[in-house]
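Kindly review these tokens for lecture notes.

. . .
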Amino acid sequence: MTTQREQLDYGGQAVMEGVMMRGKNALAVAVRQPDGEIVMHTEPLDSKIYQGKLSKIPFLRALVALWDVLVLGTRTLMWSATVSMGPEMKVEFTGPMAWGTLAFSLVLGVALFFVTPLLLAGLVEHQISSSFLTNLLEGVIRMAIFIVYIWAIGRVPEIKRVFAFHGAEHKTINAYEAGAELTPRSVARYSTSHLRCGTAFLLTVMVISVLFFAMLGQPPIVLRLLSRILFIPLIAAVAYELIKYTNRHRDNALVRVLSMPNLALQKLTTREPDEKMLEVAILALERVMEFDGVLVPAVSSEEDKVAEYSPAVL
């Protein structure tokens, strides 16, 4: 079945009742409908974005990663939501609705994790003589909001299932990177944590922002608000490079120690998946492996086939 096991950095995300996997040349989303049928959507990635010069320049290539998370991630999440409701409940998230949802999510995230901590720290800054300590307090508040937010949404039943599919995604990628057989029974033995996880990226952004903003002093509140917004791409770029470095040097003892908080936080954003969830994740990964020439498509019987469904989303 496998022609070669060229080691590619596959990644993905959990979606509603399924998993999205992104390879070198394509992305694939596999979603299980209420009737048990697995529906698949596959599309090629824009080579100008993902294999162009920008994608090879340190720090600037983080812009590609942000595009991946914000646009492709949101688009596939919307698509999975329509499919997971079943054929009779399909709703198209297109045009202004889709872009409006993305814009609202961005504004909400910046307001909650960057503006709110600044305003809360500002309530007591007159009682703190050091601007460094005030900014440090802001960072601690930001971290606390982030962790409480993840913990709180993880208690919602629907989000628990998404987190279980997140665990299935990680187990599948870990199994692939270990050269293991991609079957639910084999994949189930692997960890639900991974160094390249989006949760690890977000936590790294939070930590770097604490250190970065702590050194900016205490200019007028308007300038501080602007700095919390305008410097987000720079902080994200540094976090992205750090994540790539830790993944390349994962066998280093110091890197393993420094990565422990990231891996620990993933216990809040992953759950142990069942075999049906693992099956969905494996199908998504195998589809992008086929596009990358890493896997020869198997000849499936009629009952083994999954449906291909490609609605317009954005």
